[in-house]
Amino acid sequence: MLSEKLKEATKTNHQILEKALVGKLKAVRSAAQYADLLKLFYGYFGGLEMNINKVIDPNLLPDNAERRKTQAIADDLQALGAGIPAKADGDALPAINNHLEALGALYVIEGSTLGGKIISKMMQQQLNIGPDALSFFASYGDDTERMWNIFKDALDHQAKNPEQEAVVIAAANQTFLKFGEWFNKNQ
Ligand code: HEM
Question: By its UniProt entry, which InterPro entries does this protein fall under (predicted)?
């Protein structure tokens, strides 16, 4: 299954990113620091989402419109009274030129809903902020696992051969790597 291969092939990059993020998250003590973190996600996921939307085939992911979007980060930033930063573009983002590459990037975005639930709990414990500032990391709430399973199921029906699978996997790894670069450059 492609979803299993993706998990295995991106494991190291996930661990590196998670490690970098956990340290930063644990150090968050104010709404302003939390807003800075949200801005990092907004810039990267925002640019990524624009490029995905240019090439994704909506028929192959019918519930795409219901899925978590960068707009949720903008809503959280607004609830915190923080500004909305510019979106990443050009070389700051992975190359997303076709539907398969878009799926690889979406795998990273959708997978981040799983870690998002942990992040949301951490922020609730560390800060005095309401749910209106936590909509992005709250992901799909109790529906998060169900939405993840639906996404994986869609993913598993799309790559037709090992060559196509390799395209999705390479795009997912690039998406993790470029996020790490973005994170290091902008923090
Ligand atoms: C503090 C930060 C993070 C923590 C603690 C965390 C934690 C987790 C956990 C617990 C899972 C579920 C593993 C499983 O059920 O097998 C997961 C999966 C995943 N996370 Fe993270 N994560 C973090 C950040 C991120 C970020 C920032 C991204 C993407 C930009 C990301 C992408 C993914 C992906 C793609 C998966 C799915 C792996 C699979 O295929 O099952 N994570 N993460």
Answer: Haem_Oase-like, Haem_Oase-like_multi-hlx
- Residue 120, amino acid: S
Which ligand 1 atom is at minimum distance from the Cα of 175? 30
One CATH from 1.20.910.10, 3.30.2040.10, 3.20.20.150, 3.30.450.20 for 2-186:
1.20.910.10
If one residue of 8, 14, 108 were mutated to test the ligand 1 pocket, choosing by the most ligand atoms within 8 A of its CB, it would be 14
Q: Decide: 169 and 158 in contact? Cβ < 8 Å.
A: no
**CA dist., res. 152 & res. 150, Å (int):** 6
The Cα 165–Cα 170 span in angstroms is 9
pLDDT tens figures, 71-120: 999 999 999 999 999 999 999 999 999 999 999 999 999 999 999 999 99
Residue 14 belongs to what H/E stretch? helix 11-26
33: its two tokens: 């620091």
Q: 180 CB under 6 A from ligand 1? A: no
113 C-alpha to ligand 1 centroid (Å)? 7
Domain ranges within the chain, ordered by starting residue: 2-186
Question: What pLDDT, in 10s, does the model give residues 35-77?
Answer: 999 999 999 999 999 999 999 988 888 898 889 889 999 999 9
